[in-house]
Design goal:
The structure is a single chain. The protein is elongated. The strands form 4 sheets. Strands 1, 2, 3, 4, 5, 6 and 17 form a 7-stranded mixed β-sheet that branches. The protein has helices at residues 12-24, 59-72, 136-146, 161-172, 192-201, 277-303, and strands at residues 2-8, 29-32, 77-78, 81-86, 91-96, 100-111, 115-117, 133-135, 153-157, 177-182, 204-207, 211-215, 222-227, 230-235, 238-241, 245-247, 264-266. Helix 4 (161-172) runs parallel beside helix 5. It contains 6 helices and 17 strands. It starts with a strand and ends with a helix. A hairpin with a 4-residue loop joins strand 4 (81-86) and strand 5 (91-96).
Length: 304
């Protein structure tokens, strides 16, 4: 099957690129998403954010609005479709639930594959295999998709944006205590509003502390932070690891040299991790225009 442009990734960047292309071109577009529904990371965001557009809009609501627009514009898409490989002639091998492995040929490909959590090994500590140790992404899924807290007394180790926002969710959803521990001497908040909110909610801070030990046999009961004689024991039933995000680039690594000359374009968190939805949407629009211009140039070359 052949398409003018195939977009890999049905999160906010991929959907925005598809909408822009449909509204401004006549190209045949296919949007591929490996999960069972469109929306990407927005499906896990139940908090509001000014960058989502209208005031009071959550990530889940923004995802619903984008999907509604996709359906209104009759953009062709496939969910539960995992791209296995992309050849240099822009043939995509895709595993689908209904047809098995199918090859799709594209004139141009936009990768909006997003980002994923880094491995916890980068934090350089070992555990005694107690239960109650999760990544912040896993904890968020427990709350949003399963409807229960991962624990009542949580320590979040590492304070990137994902960890800071999770601290807010934990407290508003009923946790008794949350403590932020970070090896850096200062916890950097994305804005003053979030910092004030966490202060009001009673979230504790331990900047400049290193995780040195984990207590508990079957379930974690506490952690030790600090060094030498300056060690503090923090009781907890849950340790959440905020390890940060890395762009998912494995599918387009072979196009490192001048990818856009080959018809390969990258947008959203697959390019650079951002927590600002306005920035993500703007970048997706710009990339969709570049992809359209590339195809237009190819057609002009054929006419010559």
């Amino acid at each position: 099957m052949e398409y003018d442009i195939i977009i890999v990734g049905g999160g906010p960047a991929g959907i925005r690129a598809a909408i822009s292309l449909r509204q401004n071109t006549e190209y045949r577009i296919l949007l591929l998403e490996m999960e069972k529904s469109l929306g990407g990371a927005l499906r896990d965001i139940i908090e509001e954010d000014p960058s989502f557009g209208s005031e009071g809009t959550t990530g889940v609501e923004l995802a619903d609005d984008l999907i509604q627009k996709v359906n209104e514009l009759k953009i062709e898409y496939r969910t539960a479709a995992q791209v296995l490989s992309v050849e240099k002639d822009l043939t995509l091998s895709v595993l689908t639930m209904d047809s098995g492995i199918v090859d799709f040929k594209a004139g141009a490909v936009i990768f909006a594959t997003g980002s994923r959590e880094r491995p916890r090994g980068i934090l350089n500590f070992t555990s005694n295999r107690s239960t109650g140790i999760f990544s912040v992404g896993t904890a968020r899924k427990f709350i949003v998709k399963e409807g229960y807290l991962p624990g009542k007394n949580a320590v979040i180790y590492g304070s990137d944006f994902t960890g800071l926002y999770l601290a807010k969710i934990l407290m508003t959803e009923g946790a008794e205590s949350v403590t932020l521990v970070d090896p850096q001497k200062e916890i950097r908040y994305p804005d003053e509003e979030l910092k004030k909110t966490l202060e009001i909610l009673g979230v504790k801070e331990r900047p400049g502390h290193i995780l040195t030990d984990i207590s508990g046999k079957e379930r974690i009961t506490g952690i030790a932070v600090g060094e030498g004689d300056n060690v503090e024991l923090i009781p907890c039933d849950t340790l959440l690891l905020s390890v940060g995000l890395s762009p998912q680039k494995s599918l387009f690594k072979k196009f490192r040299r001048d990818p856009e000359k080959s018809g390969v374009f990258v947008t959203g968190n697959a390019d650079q991790v951002s927590f600002n939805m306005d920035e993500t949407m703007r970048n997706a629009w710009e990339i969709s225009k570049k992809a359209a211009d590339f195809l237009s140039g190819k057609k002009e070359e054929r006419l010559l």
